[in-house]
């Protein structure tokens, strides 16, 4: 990468991408640039969607402007005043450079980046429209499990699809892959990661009036009053079970990556292990969904996962044993919620 590209997809990306930066940074160079750029553009859109102090209509208009700029409309204006903290402002101010890099990508890669970011913006727009006016006193929930399935595709499953397309395009060792099968596995893997986020962030979301737990999974919920902890508890078990099932597709995805593709294997493995560890903590958390007692994986455990993965990723047997153990730990933690 050039110094300018490295500053954009290195230093800036590290400041705004949390733990997923590890996966982005370890990707092979040909794959790293389009995938990292897609993530950077999506983070800019997320910054706009999450801006407090502005109406849903204002944020939707700003998202539309960003979508139009990404699609190539240079007349669309990105409003950097939407960012409230320095990192977010720096991210939005970097958009002209990011869009120039998008224009320099291989046309096929650029088209794929535009598609996935547009889909992610669809998810953010759905979020703003569905939860418009929601408060802790007048909460809004998702209406069905199908709506949750659609939402998790729009904000995460589509990334698994994009990841598969980019990996096959840039890794000759993956040309033998069954593209529809692997894309479907990637979609389920992304959905599992988002379900984990939904459960982890449930307390904070409820405090803001947003409930991503579908109403049919909360039969005790009563219209006209705030959702209570007991309402949410009935949804935890089926959603933990669904996440575990979809993480199994993530396991099949990771193990289908040849051992020779070490960087891609590591990048695909780390979110799986961190996600399973987070489910384990969600199952153990007797205070869920209290926002003051969020379930999280400590930084030390993340570092241990990264260190252990270096030798393990070279052996299918060692990797399978590790993943089997991670599933057993998560299932045991969730057993008290009638998941297993």
TrEMBL record:
InterPro entries membership: Isoprenoid_synthase_dom_sf, Squ/phyt_synthse
One Pfam family named in its UniProt record: SQS_PSY
Name of the protein in question: Squalene/phytoene synthase family protein
